[in-house]
Amino acid sequence: MTTTVRTENYSRTLTLVHIGMFSALMMIGANITSFLVVGGVPITLQTFFAILAGLLLGSRVGALAMAVYAFIGLAGLRVFAQFSGGLDTLISPTFGFILSFILLAYAVGKIAERFPSRKGFIAAALVGLVINYGFGTNWMYAAYKLWFAAPEAFSYKMAWTWMAAPLPKDLLLTVMAGIFGYRLKPIVQKYK
C-alpha cells in the first residue's frame, strides 16, 4: 500500500516537473531569437520545443505543458515571442501559433504513441509542423483581414509567403526533433 502511494506521488511529481520544464523551454525558445522578425512573424524555437513535448511527454501531458505556457503568457508574464504577454495577445496576428502548440503537441503525441518507431516520430513531428503552419498562418491572415491593421496589399498568398522564410529552419528542426524525440523517449520512459 505504502509503495503504491509513494509510486503514484512520484509519478505525479515527475509529471508536474515535465510540464514545468517544457513550459520553461517554450519561454526560452520564444525569446532566444525573437528579435529576428520576417513579415509579421518572429523567428523562434517554439515549434521545436512544442513538438518535443508531444514526442517525449505524450499527447495529454505534452498538450498540458503547452497550455500552461499559454496561460502563463495570457496571465501577463512576458513569455511569448518578443517578450510579449497579457490578454491583448489574444487578438495579435501570431496568437494562432500559440494555440497551435497545444494542438500540435497533442497530435504529435498521439501519432508517436501509435507509431513508436523513428519514422513514426519523424512523421509525427512533420504533422505537428503542418498543424503549426496551417493553424497559425490562417489565424494570422484572419487577424490582419478582420481586426488588425493589415499591411498594404495584404493577401492570403502574402501570409503564406511570409512563412517561407522560417520554413527551412523549421523543417530542419522538426526532423531533428523527431530524431531527438525517438532517441530520448526511452530515457524519459525509464523515469515515469
Task: Give the name of the CATH architecture.
Answer: Orthogonal Bundle
**CATH class categorisation:** Mainly Alpha
Number of strands: 2
Helix count from the secondary structure assignment: 7
Spans with pLDDT under 50 lasting ≥5 residues?
Answer: none
Structural class: mainly alpha
Spatially, the strands of the biggest sheet line up as 1-2
Number of domains: 1
Strand content: under 5%
Protein name: Biotin transporter
GO molecular function, one term: biotin transmembrane transporter activity
Membrane topology: Multi-pass membrane protein
Transmembrane segments: 12-30, 36-57, 64-84, 90-109, 121-142, 162-182
Question: Would you mind describing this structure in some detail?
Answer:
This protein is an all-alpha fold and 192 residues long. It has a single domain, classed as Orthogonal Bundle (Arp2/3 complex 21 kDa subunit ARPC3), CATH 1.10.1760. It has 7 helices and 2 strands. A two-stranded antiparallel sheet has the order 1-2. α1 (2-31) packs across α3 (59-74) and α2 (46-57) crosses α5. The chain is globular and about 60 Å long.
Features:
single chain, 192 residues, mainly alpha, Arp2/3 complex 21 kDa subunit ARPC3, globular
Show the helix and strand layout:
Elements: H1 2-31, E1 37-38, E2 41-42, H2 46-57, H3 59-74, H4 95-114, H5 118-146, H6 156-162, H7 167-190
Antiparallel strand pairs: 1-2
Helix pairs in contact: 1-2, 1-3, 2-3, 2-4, 2-5, 2-7, 3-4, 4-5, 5-7
Protein name: Biotin transporter
Subcellular location: Cell membrane
GO molecular function: biotin transmembrane transporter activity
